[in-house]
């Protein structure tokens, strides 16, 4: 479809002309916006009227249904109260005083219904036999302020009288029901209905409610003067009453009902279940649809203002925008070409001035950053030269420490041992033995410096997967061989695989060896591995090294905790430092208790299947 449209000569020329100019693009875009806005405004004008009318209908219908439900619940509750009162065994006693006392008690204590009076009618002589109000006893039924047929098919039937005023001036309804224990008698419970409409709210200002029965009489209303009046001037039923008596609920367009309802109103109706009543919610038509006219007026005004604004944008801003964008484009292209002495219109007060100032600031920032990058490049080159020199020095020093010093230390240890074997003086022999042990310690330090160098080399490398129990076996066997009088126990799950440096087992073995050496006699060292964490948070294993001897020297622990050594705070050996640096190469943690000198290493657990 689009291709066919573009194939037309006039359309193709128009599209090409619009593409070549931002001003024409702006004009075309604004024209499309104007056209769409006009169509939307007309559609909105029509739809708003429909939606608001539907909203009035829905809100009033909902109000009518709500009021009908309230009346259904209210009448049903009072029917139940009447039935409960009629089923009490007190009526079987035949004692009027007991019945009167019961009715008086129920009137005073019943909270679910506002009982005004309760009395028993003898249907044989048509008089009030017993009443909660004694002054009503003996009154003939024809003198009561209500009329009702006494036709009941079952003892559970309850009939409702029309509203009437009792002797106290209150508007009440009577609920009549047979008494099972007293055949030929009826119980009448009068309920106050004056506050019934206080709970109802009208969705439209000026609204009112009428409850009409099947005879077209207003039996309940929120205006007492309208009660017991005909809903229509004629005796015919209103259409709303007819539909409601059929069980329907609905809405009527503006209508009037003669002199009793002279104004044009809209009405919603709903039936009251269990009765011949229909609730009709009224509202003045002018009030119900007042907002529709106001909204349509505002829509028209907004459309006119929008049209004027769009035309102003095309005429006033189009030319200025295109000129400014053209100048900015040319200057940006010069910066892109490496020309940083471009001038911008920084004195302009509008948004294009802000954009010019931003580009000027960007130009200056780029110029400064390029200069800093050049300086950084020169500094990095000088730093690389110094690093290469220091690397060579470290290599030479490591070779000297590892080979020359180690060889000399081994010579000292060997010669000292030979001399000690030929000396008979016990004290001198002990001194020579001390010299030999000290020399061997220097030899161990030389070995550990090689591991530290390896750690420095491998610090940026990836860790490897170690089956912890197997990896610890070989280096710990060497420690056991050197200290057979001490005990080293390892309790690590056989299937635990951690991600760590290859030097981790040697570092742990060095710590165990230092613990044994620091103790005066045989010592027992325990290495326990405890899995921790979850699959969601990340699984890990905590390796705890504890002993019953002197433990790691406190000076070593404090030095490693502070992360530096001072003349007053320095380690006696490199074992704990090696372990710390080894753990730092992984995602693990090292924790040492200064008091108990207990070492705890937390290492991440890896999945061998995922690794493979």
From TrEMBL:
Transmembrane annotation, as ranges: 27-52, 298-319
Any one Gene Ontology molecular-function term assigned to this protein's record: ATP binding
Biological process terms in GO annotation: signal transduction
Record keywords: ATP-binding, Coiled coil, Kinase, Membrane, Nucleotide-binding, Phosphoprotein, Transducer, Transferase, Transmembrane, Transmembrane helix
Coiled coil: 363-390
GO cellular component: membrane
UniProt keyword annotation of Nucleus present: no
EC assignment: 2.7.13.3
Domain HAMP: 319-371
Entries under PROSITE patterns matching the protein: HAMP
The keyword 4Fe-4S is annotated on this UniProt entry: no
CDD domains, sorted: HAMP (cd06225), PDC1_HK_sensor (cd18773)
Source domain of life: Archaea
Catalysed transformations (reactions): ATP + protein L-histidine = ADP + protein N-phospho-L-histidine
Protein name: histidine kinase
Organism annotation: Halobellus limi
């Amino acid at each position: 479809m689009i291709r066919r449209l573009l194939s037309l000569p006039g359309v193709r020329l128009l599209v090409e002309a619009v593409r070549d100019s931002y001003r024409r693009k702006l004009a075309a875009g604004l024209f499309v916006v104007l056209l769409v806005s006009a169509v939307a405004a007309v559609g909105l004008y029509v739809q708003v009227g429909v939606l608001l009318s539907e909203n009035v209908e829905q809100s009033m219908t909902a109000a009518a249904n709500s009021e009908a439900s309230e009346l259904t619940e209210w009448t049903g509750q009072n029917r139940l109260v009447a039935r409960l009162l009629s089923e009490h065994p007190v009526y079987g006693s035949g004692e009027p005083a007991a019945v009167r006392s019961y009715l008086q008690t129920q009137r005073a204590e019943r909270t679910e219904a506002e009982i005004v009076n309760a009395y028993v009618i003898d249907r044989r002589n048509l008089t009030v036999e017993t009443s909660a109000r004694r002054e009503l006893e003996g009154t003939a039924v024809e003198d009561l302020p209500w009329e009702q047929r006494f036709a009941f098919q079952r003892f559970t039937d309850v009939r409702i009288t029309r509203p009437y005023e009792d002797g106290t001036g209150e508007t009440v309804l009577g609920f009549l029901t047979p008494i099972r224990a007293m055949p030929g008698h009826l119980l009448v419970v009068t309920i106050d209905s004056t506050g019934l409409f206080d709970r109802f709210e009208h969705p439209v200002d000026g609204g009112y409610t009428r409850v009409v029965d099947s005879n077209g009489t207003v039996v309940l209303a929120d205006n007492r003067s309208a009660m017991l009046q005909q809903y229509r001037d004629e005796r015919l039923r209103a259409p709303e009453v007819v539909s409601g008596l059929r069980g329907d609920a609905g809405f009527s367009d503006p209508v009037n009902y003669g002199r009793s309802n002279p104004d044009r109103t809209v009405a919603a109706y709903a039936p009251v279940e269990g009765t011949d009543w229909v609730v009709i919610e009224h509202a003045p038509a002018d009030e119900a649809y007042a907002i529709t006219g106001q909204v349509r007026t505002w829509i028209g005004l907004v459309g006119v203002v929008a049209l004027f604004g769009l035309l102003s944008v095309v005429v006033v801003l189009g030319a200025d925008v295109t000129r400014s964008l053209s100048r900015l484009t040319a200057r940006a292209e010069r910066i892109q070409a490496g020309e940083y002495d471009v001038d911008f219109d920084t004195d302009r007060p509008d948004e294009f001035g802000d954009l010019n100032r931003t580009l000027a600031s960007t130009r200056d920032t780029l110029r400064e950053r390029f200069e800093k990058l050049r300086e950084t490049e020169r500094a990095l080159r000088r730093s690389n030269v110094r690093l290469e020199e220091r690397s060579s020095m470290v290599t030479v020093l490591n070779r000297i420490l590892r080979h020359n010093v180690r060889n000399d230390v081994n010579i000292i240890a060997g010669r000292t041992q030979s001399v000690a074997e030929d000396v008979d003086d016990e004290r001198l022999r002990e001194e020579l033995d001390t010299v030999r042990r000290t020399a061997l310690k220097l030899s161990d330090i030389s070995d550990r410096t090689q591991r530290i160098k390896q750690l420095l080399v491998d610090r940026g490398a990836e860790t490897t997967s170690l089956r912890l129990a197997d990896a610890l076996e070989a280096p710990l066997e060497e420690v056991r061989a050197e200290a057979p009088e001490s005990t080293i126990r390892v309790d690590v799950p056989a299937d635990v695989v951690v991600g760590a440096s290859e030097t981790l087992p040697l570092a742990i073995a060095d710590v165990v060896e230092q613990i044994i050496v620091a103790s005066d006699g045989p010592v027992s060292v325990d290495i326990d591995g405890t899995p921790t964490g979850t699959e969601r948070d990340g699984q890990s294993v905590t390796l705890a090294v504890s002993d019953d001897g002197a433990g790691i020297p406190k000076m070593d622990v404090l030095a490693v905790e502070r992360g530096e050594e001072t003349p007053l705070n320095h380690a006696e050996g490199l074992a704990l430092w090696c372990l710390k640096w080894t753990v730092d190469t992984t995602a693990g943690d090292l924790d040492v208790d200064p008091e108990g000198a207990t070492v705890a290493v937390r290492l991440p657990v890896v999945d061998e299947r995922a690794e493979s």
